[in-house]
TrEMBL record:
<keyword id="KW-0808">Transferase</keyword>
<dbReference type="GO" id="GO:0019563">
    <property type="term" value="P:glycerol catabolic process"/>
</dbReference>
<dbReference type="InterPro" id="IPR050861">
    <property type="entry name" value="Dihydroxyacetone_Kinase"/>
</dbReference>
<dbReference type="InterPro" id="IPR036117">
    <property type="entry name" value="DhaL_dom_sf"/>
</dbReference>
<dbReference type="GO" id="GO:0005829">
    <property type="term" value="C:cytosol"/>
</dbReference>
<dbReference type="InterPro" id="IPR004007">
    <property type="entry name" value="DhaL_dom"/>
</dbReference>
<dbReference type="GO" id="GO:0004371">
    <property type="term" value="F:glycerone kinase activity"/>
</dbReference>
<keyword id="KW-0418">Kinase</keyword>
<protein>
    <submittedName>
        <fullName>Dihydroxyacetone kinase DhaL subunit</fullName>
    </submittedName>
</protein>
<dbReference type="InterPro" id="IPR012737">
    <property type="entry name" value="DhaK_L_YcgS"/>
</dbReference>
<feature type="domain" description="DhaL">
    <location>
        <begin position="6"/>
        <end position="205"/>
    </location>
</feature>
<dbReference type="Pfam" id="PF02734">
    <property type="entry name" value="Dak2"/>
</dbReference>
Length: 209
């Protein structure tokens, strides 16, 4: 299965499905250490994205990612809107090519992480979505260097994100709304790390065809 514009469109639709299905789960996670709106924020955003890409005349993966970026920025709000918006925007800049090879997939993921860190200034260990994205990028880089296919790079990224998201449970938040709780933020999964896993799972699934 090639990682072309059709893949990007499948990724978007599967993301919207998955976020809609996980809306209550994300809400509950954010209720524990935030303000309980992460599920609603992302569901609103990805529902809008789904409508936007319907019938979109996109030439390449980058075109699709740019539409995702601008739509998320204008519909999601909160901390995660600008963060995910910038992630997709930076991801789009490095993928103006018709079909992604393994290194282009890595570049896409690196772009996303770079967007999130340039916007939110969080480092690994601060209990944010960066704790899922960073190991995802590391795992993707390692897989590509070992000769993995583009789809295998996405599977590696997903596994890295899952492990990274799990690691947020034991962390104390020092960025974002959860940081107001201090020590009481420990023992809970970060909502943005969880939504990151869902989005990367959708990317990997779209590549399975
Ligand atoms: P808000 O906190 O404004 O209500 P959301 O609930 O939609 O926004 O998103 C919360 C998520 O955003 C957190 O779980 C965390 O993963 C992420 N987040 C918050 N601040 C930052 C930051 N500075 N850098 C990276 N991610 C962050
Ligand atoms: Mg919130
Ligand atoms: Mg909020």
């Amino acid at each position: 299965m090639s990682l072309d514009v059709e893949w990007a469109l499948r990724w978007v639709r599967l993301s919207a499905d998955s976020i809609a299905e996980a809306r209550d789960e994300l809400t509950e996670l954010d209720r524990q250490i935030g303000d309980g709106d992460h599920g609603a924020n992302l569901d609103r955003g990805f529902a809008a994205v789904r409508t936007k890409v319907d019938g979109l005349e996109a030439e390449n993966v980058g075109d699709v990612l740019k539409v995702v970026a601008t739509t998320l920025m204008s519909t999601v709000g909160g901390a995660s809107g600008p963060l995910y918006g910038t992630a997709y925007l930076r991801a789009a800049k490095v993928t103006g090519i018709p079909e992604l090879n393994a290194h282009a997939v890595v570049a896409l993921l690196e772009g996303a992480l770079e967007g999130i860190t340039s916007r939110g200034r969080a480092e690994v260990g601060e209990k944010t979505m960066v704790d899922a994205w960073s190991p995802a990028v590391d795992a993707a880089e390692a897989a590509a260097a070992a000769g993995a296919s583009p789809a295998e790079v996405l599977e590696a990224a997903l596994a890295g994100a899952e492990e990274g998201a799990r690691s947020t449970v034991d962390l104390v938040a020092t960025k974002g709304r959860a940081s107001y709780l201090g020590e009481r933020s420990r023992g809970h999964l970060d909502p943005g790390a969880r939504s990151t896993v869902l989005l990367l799972a959708a990317a990997a699934e779209a590549a399975r065809g």
